[in-house]
Amino acid sequence: MFSWTETGARQVGIIQSLISTCRLQGINPYTYLVDVLQRVSLHPASKVEDLTPRRWKDLFASHPLLSDLDKVGK
Question: What is this structure's pTM?
Fold first, then answer.
């Protein structure tokens, strides 16, 4: 039997919220998450709002960072 912990449920809720927000903004959630997870360590903490889906779409969607798996076919 599977049981959610409170922390695990909260983390799943955050990811689901990000995915839903991406879809509402017309962003591919996979592209967004791959880009943001690579960009987060390079991006200044003072500008963290730039990594929210709405701001990311304006700033980075035209040139997202790709995963190594996406680069294989290119």
Answer: 0.82
